[in-house]
Amino acid sequence: MLARFLADAVLILHLLFIVFVLAGGLLLLWRRALGLLHLPAVVWAVLLELNGWICPLTPLENRLLRAAGEAGYEGGFVERYLLALIYPQGLTPEIQHWLGILVLAVNLAVYAWVFLGRQPR
Q1: Torsion sign (Cα): 93, 94, 95, 97
Q2: TM spans, by residue (predicted)?
Q3: What are phi and psi of 2, to 5 degrees?
Q4: Which residues of 62-95 are buried (b: 16+ CB within 10 A; e: fewer)?
């Protein structure tokens, strides 16, 4: 039971990390110091996408699922849970590279807006 709870916790952590990478730059409007956490997360996510790596949380979740007596799954977190929501059918390495570049571009735009475009209060 504990292993299943921990597997679910890793799943939730994984999802929160993805949301943080995609939208966390907006938190800089509240506290600019959060960029010290957000920038490394964006770099990590972009590197994962551009290199086709699997996030270390995926094998951890699989180990916990197996310890709970359940089957793990093949592929990564995104393929397992978010493919239908985030990625189009027929995902190719080229599309995955463009998605990584899109994440980077969106975050660069947010950072530019926060640090260059906003007037201090």
Answers
A1: positive
A2: 6-29, 36-54, 95-116
A3: -65, -40
A4: bebbeeeeeeeeeebbbebbeeeeeeeeeeeeee
Interval 17-29: pLDDT, tens: 988 988 888 888 8
Give CA–CA dist 105/78, Å, rounded.
20
Residue 107 near residue 35 (C-beta atoms within 8 A): no
pTM metric for this prediction = 0.68
For the chain, the distance separating the N- and C-terminal CA atoms, rounded to the nearest angstrom, is 50
Give 64-86 pLDDT, tens digit per residue: 888 888 776 665 655 566 545 55
What residue spans define the domains of the chain?
2-117
Integer Cα distance of 104 and 121 in angstroms: 28
